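Dear Dr. H.,

I hope your travels went smoothly. While you were away I took the liberty of generating a structure for the chain from your last submission, since the lab meeting agenda had it listed for discussion. I wanted you to have the full record in hand beforehand rather than looking at slides cold. The sequence, exactly as received, is reproduced here:
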Amino acid sequence: MKRSAPTLRNQTKMRNKYFINPAVEHEAAKVYKDGFPIYMMVGKLKKELKRTKPFPDPVIMQFCKAYWKHKPNAENPYPYFIKTFHMVSAEWHSTMQQAEHQKHKMDRAPVAQSIKDVLKGMFT
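The corresponding predicted structure, in token form, is as follows:
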């Protein structure tokens, strides 16, 4: 049985399951129109990692920027995608961990001070 070509509506519905933010979708569509199968790559990686949530928007945006910057090196799509995506993802996770660390560092109260207050409250 021969399958018919997907309609534009079905293609849009299929693509939107990978990207939530319209700006990310727009950047991914530009990369796709340039000939790089970004939707297939994201879907394949998502399936290999058994991931149920979409990838973070900043990671996809950074990948698209890296694609335009290193476009001549993207001859073999999947190895290029995996290498670049992992690099961008590691950079994003590192930035997020540093920001979270700074937040916790600024928010925490000195432990010795709080113990001192507890003991003072017990004996007064």
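Two observations you may find useful: Residues 1-8 have pLDDT under 50 and may be disordered. Residues 10-123 form one domain.

With kind regards,
E. W.
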